Amino acid sequence: MGRMVTLIPGDGVGPEIAEVAKSCVAALGVGIEWDVEEAGAAVLEREGSPLPDRVLESIRRNGAALKGPVETPVGRGFRSVNVRLRQELDLFACVRPCRHYTGVKSRITNPELIDLVIVRENTEDLYAGIEFMESCGQENPLLSFIRDKTGVILGCDTGISIKHISKSASERIVTFAFEYARKNGRRKVTAIDKANIMKMSDGLFMRAAEAVSRNYPDIRYEHKLVDNMCMQLVRYPEEYDVLVLPNLYGDILSDLAAGLVGGLGVAPGVNMGSDYAVFEATHGSAPDIAGKDLVNPTGLLLSAVLLLHHLGETRAASRLEHAVALVLREGKAVTADLKMDGDPFPAVGTRAMGQAVVEKIRSLS
Ligand code: NAD
Q1: Smallest Cα–Cα separation from 121: which of 65, 175, 162?
Q2: Do 270 and 312 have their domain in common?
Q3: How many whole angstroms from its chain centre is CA 252?
Q4: Measured between alpha carbons, how far is 183 from 123 in angstroms, rounded to an integer?
């Protein structure tokens, strides 16, 4: 029997890319067995929870999961499954490598020079879901507390989301980033925040980063404000190596970085803690193209490469990455999002692109 890994197909385009990932991993012959667990919007209707306990138990049992995207209703409805997964399993670090593969269109000159990794704190910040609705017509002790403590008078029609950042979580994520840099032969860590304005929260993050950096004299450390960093990343992305950020900035800059190297379709990632790891693409459930055989499976396939490395299947990981890279470079069997104007080959569907990767894997054996 092979090694059990949890597979969460997810919502929207999730099942389509999960099928491709399954067939590519099968072609590698590494003996992974999938413990398939449904989570997301459809499960909520059937089972009353979008993240039933059996999903968490499966990941706790297997230690690792490959996950498709799961929908989160905007501004209403159930709490994010992704946020709950990260909190329940203490997946405190989100790691998103960002490099360019030949053949993928980019608006940047020399995208091949981009090779950076985003390390995002996953458990706190504005993202953690501590929120209060507007409260006209009701007693709201929070508004009185804010008025008494700060002198700021907020109207009863104000919604409030709490941004909380702790020294311990900041030290933990920055230490993770430096350890990652050391293990992976990287030379520089850039900590990013808005410490000039949010002195209590981002200021704490910045001070924690500076303190941790002193333990790693072999790795260069620098600090940047997040607004400046957005501009720097667009203009000089090749100058950056490992970026470490609080949760919300990490979320936003991950998409920006994905955009630099060809878009959401090609961006992989993993959410990691001390005990468990959940591998998933950066993109969401893409409801506009779900069920149409249009979704690019590359993000999840490159996440599967990270999973294979994590499981110690280094050779299989390299074969899968090489196969994906060859398909991207040839450009004959890629989805519409990767097509350039004047491209001589028509776009293919998700399944056909997956099949092309399977064939490359076989030819590399
Ligand atoms: P999205 O990433 O789903 O889609 C943004 C745009 O990019 C869409 O036009 C989509 O068609 C396109 N796109 C995304 N991935 C693609 C791919 N692989 N191939 C081709 N085109 C692709 O972002 P969104 O629309 O903001 O979010 C949709 C839902 O996904 C929301 O409910 C959101 O909460 C959820 N979401 C989940 C995760 C996750 O599970 N990790 C991550 C982000 C968003």
Answers
A1: 175
A2: yes
A3: 10
A4: 23
Task: Confirm whether 257 is domain-assigned.
Answer: no
**The domain spanning residue 13 has which CATH number?**
3.40.718.10
According to DSSP, the residues that pair with 79 across neighbouring strands are: none
Task: Give the pLDDT score at 74.
Answer: 62
Q: Is 127 tagged catalytic? A: yes
With a 6 A CB cut-off, is 277 part of the ligand 1 pocket? no
Give the C-alpha separation, 96 to 102, whole Å. Answer: 19
Active site residue 227: yes
pLDDT at residue 45 in the model: 83
User: What pLDDT sits at residue 128?
Assistant: 83
DSSP state of 50: S
Question: Residue 359: what are its φ and ψ, rounded to 5°?
Answer: -65, -40
Residue 251 designated active-site: yes
Residue at 347 is within a domain: yes
The atom of ligand 1 lying closest to the CA of 337 is 20
Range of the domain at 70: 1-102+262-365
**Residues 187, 148: one domain?**
no
Which ligand 1 atom is at minimum distance from the Cα of 289? 11
Residue 194 annotated to the active site = yes
**Pair (149, 83) in one structural domain:** no
What whole-number distance in Å separates Cα of residue 98 and Cα of residue 92?
Answer: 19
Q: Identify whether residues 115 and 239 lie together within a single domain.
A: yes
C-alpha closest to that of 93 among 181, 202, 19: 181
- Cα–Cα distance for residue pair 175/296, rounded to 1 Å: 34
Residue 29's pLDDT is 94
Rounded-to-integer distance, Cα 185 and Cα 135, Å = 52
For residues 347 and 335, state if they share a domain: yes
What total of structural domains would you count in the chain?
3
Residues of the chain below pLDDT 70: 1, 73-78
DSSP-assigned beta bridge partners for residue 121: 93
- Is there a single domain that holds both residue 188 and residue 143? no
Which of 245, 276, 310 finishes a domain? 245
Task: Catalytic residue, from 22, 67, 194, 224: name it.
Answer: 194
286 Cβ closer than 6 Å to some ligand 1 atom: yes
